Amino acid sequence: MDGSIKVKNLTKTYKGDVKAVQGVSFEVEEGEFFAFLGPNGAGKSTTVQILTTLVKPTEGEIFVGGINVKDNPEGVRRNIGVALQETGIDSVLTGRELIEMQARLFGFSKKEAKTRAVELLELVDLTGDADRPSGKYSGGMRRRLDLAMTLVHNPKVLFLDEPTTGLDPMNRKAIWKEIKRLNREEGTTIFLTTQYLEEADQLADRISIINQGRIVAEGSAEELKRTLGFDAIQLTFETTEEAEQASKVLYGIGENMEHSKEEVTIYTENGTQFLPELVRNLDEQHLSPKTINVKPPSLDDVFINVTNEEKERV
Length: 314
Ligand code: ADP
Ligand code: MG
Prior knowledge:
Elements: E1 5-14, E2 18-28, E3 33-37, H1 44-51, E4 59-64, E5 67-68, H2 73-79, E6 80-83, H3 95-105, H4 110-123, H5 139-150, E7 157-161, H6 169-186, E8 189-194, H7 197-203, E9 206-211, E10 214-219, H8 221-228, E11 231-236, H9 240-249, E12 256-260, E13 263-268, H10 271-284, E14 291-295, H11 299-313
Parallel strand pairs: 3-8, 3-9, 6-7, 7-8
Antiparallel strand pairs: 1-2, 1-4, 4-5, 9-10, 11-13, 11-14, 12-13
Helix pairs in contact: 3-4, 8-11
Bound molecules: adenosine-5'-diphosphate (ADP) and magnesium ion.
């Protein structure tokens, strides 16, 4: 078994004709860090559940580590780790007990399970809290425990469904650091879902943006920004009236414009090249901006761009 993932034309329709996933295809190479980025209800969890053999697809072919999920779900399960979005961590058992239990499920002897628990607790920085009931853990500690439990059997592929949703920035960074390390140092393939643009931007080699069950964009963060993002030229004026006038003068320049109070923002490719023409046009109408600022494209713009487009088509 290698660490690759291959998905061809995956479809999942739930009862009541809920089309959760609609013809999704993608490939992840061994050792790659892949992110599924999408808003709530996009179909992320459904995809993770299908790829990890927990839910059956309506249609499509799925290979995890070269193994067909349909033919050999057990084989797939032995080689993957999964941290689901909704976890049912037992509140009375301690972190240590839960990891040991998980290790036993994967066939470790009692002694091996104890040793593995010590290692993993250290790894996710829970040694000090190992013998407290996990129900008393904070959100961040619980996610770290989740992560430790998925790592018991050294999986080749790790599936993480929104591992940092609801966490404060410090705990989020701690999780980021650990999964980055697993990917870089252990060569673990990572399939991560998130609704945080920054998370995908920071961590992933490649990103697929999923919306309403379909992949609407794919590429590295840089590629996505380059092909789908725009520079934002932000102009501020002394008064609302001036900004209003400016927005009329500049109407039609660039791809898109936003106007609120004293501020006008124009979205365009090659923002800096546009500046002279823009200033000239304003000058002709005796309008001079108080500040001008050109911002390179962000993944946020890309996201808004592709998810809005998709909505309009529906
Ligand atoms: P995400 O994880 O991106 O938020 P989900 O995969 O959980 O999205 O959900 C995708 C769509 O499928 C949503 O419309 C959701 O309501 C629906 N859905 C998810 N699970 C079920 C289920 N077990 N039965 C019926 N509909 C479901
Ligand atoms: Mg989800």
